[in-house]
Each structure stands twice: as structure tokens, then as C-alpha cells.
């Protein structure tokens, strides 16, 4: 056990928590045996996203039909604990999904006040689940982890936490860079559903190699391995999530129960009278390599692709510009626009380039030296030429006095514009 904690501590020096933010507490009504009671519950941040913000995503606005809300009803049927226990046990999962009062609260939350969000997320699954499942399968991870972004971002690719975590998987900048997600003023790979998903799968696999327990892994995903290690030490080395539960921060305690509840509601939504919003699957897309600076408006103007669609397909570019001049980058477009882009790419790169790319490569600086200031020119004097080697402590005045000439004469003979002289140099003296 000591070896486990020490190993985790070393890893923590490299990793920062993916999305540590304070939880929002709300009161929920618990219905049981014909009675009702209020209890406080700490919500994962995804539960605090209003439905309007989720629907602002371009994919949602264009492919989810809010007018065909099928048969989602306002009434959420009540079930006994034994029904929940049975249903959770029948989910085909590697990960342990036990039932208790805390899990029940989150099931009631998803199936109750968050019914509309669940309806939206069921539809958004059509966009993102194939991406999640491919990466998880490639790394040999439990497919039930595909519902982790429901807890992290409510499947909102534009989600940004108060702590600065970003994207579907809510990576912090530091952790993202460790896993190959570039972040700078123009590019943020944390917003790229594909790149971020593969980075998250690698992160989860490495965390499992440390803890060997999926509940601890996803808890560490929320608050960072350092916080989990501290809770393990305070619990006298216990590595069961439910035994260290009370030693965890409030914002993390609800994370695993919320994950179990998300798996439940995404499996048994029909039993709670929840129906997915109708979704039209987007057209196929493909990618091309960009080797020059390219602005989204150049693409929209000449490839007949709406600007909002270009932005939605390439969310990693923060300023609608691909800095291809620095290194090759990927551009994703509808498949029918790919050949159009390849055929016209020289024209596209040149289109409005001077207008859209204003940063200058070179800047000329004018010489502001007054025109009257000219370099002094040495002039030969009358008489015999001799040389004086300047010694430390010499001044033009002392040298002029020694040879019986004026300071101005010495300056004129040697092309000096000031009285500054340096030891070791020679001066012409005419006498």
C-alpha cells in the first residue's frame, strides 16, 4: 500500500487535476415509502449547465430537432430500491456500480429536474459515442467510461469550468499538454473531441495502472491523484472508494455516485418516461493537411461551407485561423467540400490574405538622427606629424597642454566629435 501511495505521489508531480471546481449544493426531494423529505446534494458541474447553453452548440442547433420532443413526459415514475439494485446489476459493465442512498439521489436528480438535459444528452450521444467507444476499445478500457463526459461537460464541447478546464473531457491546460494536447493563443486541442478523447483514454489507462480500481480512477480524474492519495492516507491505507468517501472533498464525493447514476439513466431512460430529442446524423466529414496560414472566412467564401459549420468541425482553433505556416495542421470539412478545397487551395490561401492576416513579418525603423549631425573627418595639420599614445588618466586638455596645441586642433586632426578618449589608442599631433 505504501508503494502505491508513493508511486501516485510521483505521478502527481506530473499531473494536475483535470477539473477541480467547487460543487454547487441544492436541496432535492427524496420520495420513499409514501413520504417525502428534503436532503442537500453536491452537484457535479455538468448538472449546473442550463439546457439553453447546451443547445447553443452548432451541431445541436442544426441536427437536434427540438420541435419533435417525442414523448418525454413530466411524470417520473417511482421505483423501489430493489428495482434500482436489480437494474444496476443487469448493466453489462466491468466497473462496479453499487446502489445506495447517495446513488439514489443522483438518479432522482437526472430522472427528475434534469429530464430535459438527459433528453438532450441522449441525442448528442449520436455525435460523440462512436468517438468515445473507438478510443476506449483501442486502449482496452471499460466502455461504460463513455458516460464520463456526461458528468464532466454534459456532452457540451464548448464547456469551460470556472477553474479553466475545457472541452468534452474537461482537461486543464497542464494535464492536456502532458497528453499531447496543444494549447496556445490560436490552438486548443482540448476542444477537439477526437484528440481529447484519445488523450483521456490514455490518462484513464495510466491511472488504472496505478490504482487498479475504477472508482478511484474516475475520482482521481475529477480531483487529481494527489487528493485521492491524501484521502487514502487519512483512511489508514484503505483503497475502497466508499471507505475513503468521507475523506474526499465535497466536490468529489458526488462524482462516482453521479457516474453510476448517469450509466443508469442512459440505460433505463425509457422506464422514466424520458425520450431522446430527434437527431439527424450530420453528413460525413474528412480531413486535409494545411501547410499555410488559413482563415475560416477564406474557406467559407470559396468552398460554399457556412462559417459556423467550419467552426463547429474545427473547434480546436480559437481565433478562426489555422497557423499552418508554423507546422502542418488538420482541417476537417464536409466530405463533399474536400475535393473543392484541394482543387482551389492556392486560390483559397491567397483570397483576402492581406485583409485577414495583418501581422507583419518585418517592420522598417527610420533613422531619426538629425540631418545636421555628421561624422567628423580627420584633417591634416601644419607642421611635423608625431603620435601620442594615450595613457590612463590622460585627457584631451592635458595632452593639448603638453604639446602646446588646442583641444579643438587635436579633435580636428583625429576626427573626434567628442572629448572622450580611451587608453592605448594613438592621437595625431602636428607641431
From TrEMBL:
<feature type="signal peptide">
    <location>
        <begin position="1"/>
        <end position="23"/>
    </location>
</feature>
<dbReference type="InterPro" id="IPR036779">
    <property type="entry name" value="LysM_dom_sf"/>
</dbReference>
<feature type="domain" description="LysM">
    <location>
        <begin position="386"/>
        <end position="429"/>
    </location>
</feature>
<keyword id="KW-0732">Signal</keyword>
<dbReference type="Pfam" id="PF01476">
    <property type="entry name" value="LysM"/>
</dbReference>
<dbReference type="InterPro" id="IPR000189">
    <property type="entry name" value="Transglyc_AS"/>
</dbReference>
<dbReference type="Pfam" id="PF01464">
    <property type="entry name" value="SLT"/>
</dbReference>
<dbReference type="InterPro" id="IPR018392">
    <property type="entry name" value="LysM"/>
</dbReference>
<dbReference type="InterPro" id="IPR008258">
    <property type="entry name" value="Transglycosylase_SLT_dom_1"/>
</dbReference>
<dbReference type="GO" id="GO:0000270">
    <property type="term" value="P:peptidoglycan metabolic process"/>
</dbReference>
<dbReference type="GO" id="GO:0016020">
    <property type="term" value="C:membrane"/>
</dbReference>
<comment type="similarity">
    <text>Belongs to the transglycosylase Slt family.</text>
</comment>
<keyword id="KW-0456">Lyase</keyword>
<dbReference type="GO" id="GO:0008933">
    <property type="term" value="F:peptidoglycan lytic transglycosylase activity"/>
</dbReference>
<dbReference type="InterPro" id="IPR023346">
    <property type="entry name" value="Lysozyme-like_dom_sf"/>
</dbReference>
<protein>
    <submittedName>
        <fullName>LysM peptidoglycan-binding domain-containing protein</fullName>
        <ecNumber>4.2.2.-</ecNumber>
    </submittedName>
</protein>
